[in-house]
Amino acid sequence: MTRFLKTFTAAAVLALVGIGAQASDFPAKDKPITIVVPFAAGGPTDRVARDLAEAMRKPLGGVSILVDNAAGAGGSIGANKVAKAAPDGYTLLVHHIGMATMPTLVRNIPFKVETDFEYLGGINDVPMTIIAKPTLPANNMKELVAWVAANKGKINLGNAGVGSASHLCGLLFQEALKTDMTPVPYKGTAPAMTDLIGGQIDLMCDQTTNTTSQIEAKKVKAFAVTSPKRLSTAALKDIPTMQESGFKDFQVSIWHGLYAPKGTPADVAKKLNDALKVALKDPDFIKKQEGLGAVVVTDKRMDSADHKKFVAAEIAKWSPIIKAAGVYAD
């Protein structure tokens, strides 16, 4: 028995040493890192992830970083893929505010947001825009509110699917106007935007990362931004805030964060967090994000523990709103 225990202990020590060696060698130059995006390609979260992948390559020694789109079920399919992945630092998740809404929004969620991930840090804050089809007769928020009141029961409000940023913002917009609209969910932001431009739906509330180019090209009408102050981007600087438009409590920011599977070695997680911090200060990354109306995180949310506290507060904020709306993503 004693001989067995000595052998077992020696094997355990060797295993731990092996794990430590693997962690210290992270990342291997011949093994790519994959960032899973739980939404369709071409959408706003996909754009953020691809920009981040490029910005993190250099501080991680030039390793290849791939993006894998795994959409569906309010973002939980992609998140579950990462939660169940090997905790070695080679499979990561870029997710938005859905990390805070999934616990309430998704029935029978197969993982726990609070405990099944290593929180690596926040990435950005993305304001939303209230936009409409180009033929909508209103030209400012006052006229839009009057148009909505005159067309109750006839208005289609598009979104990128249950649990998407556009869906959540749409819920708040209806609540603010005290008017029910017919929700039209799509399988992603791109087809929703196509139908808005074509006039098949009337309104949408979506991230600046997806709407800025359409607003600039005058393919849609823009009525307000959901940030506390006007944005400096050329295409958005003349668009008033919701507060300026008479909705003092209407403020929505769709943030993004970076995560790894629970159990990822501490030194690997630190290397990833260090690379994230370098990326968030990269001038090219900042310029790309600002061009989309997004604000790169510069506060304590860059740290893992503080981002986790932030997400916990967001879960507490959104849970009653979703429950009151009675919506779920199966």
UniProtKB/TrEMBL annotation:
Q: Which domain of life is it from?
A: Bacteria
**Which residues, if any, are the signal sequence?**
1-23
* Gene3D superfamilies linked: Bordetella uptake gene, domain 1, Periplasmic binding protein-like II
For the keyword Signal, the answer is yes
Ordered alphabetically, the record's keywords are: Signal
Q: Which InterPro entries match?
A: BUG, Bug_dom1
Keyword Signal, does the record have it? yes
Hey, which family's this protein in? Answer: Belongs to the UPF0065 (bug) family.
Tell me what this protein is called.
Tripartite tricarboxylate transporter substrate binding protein BugD
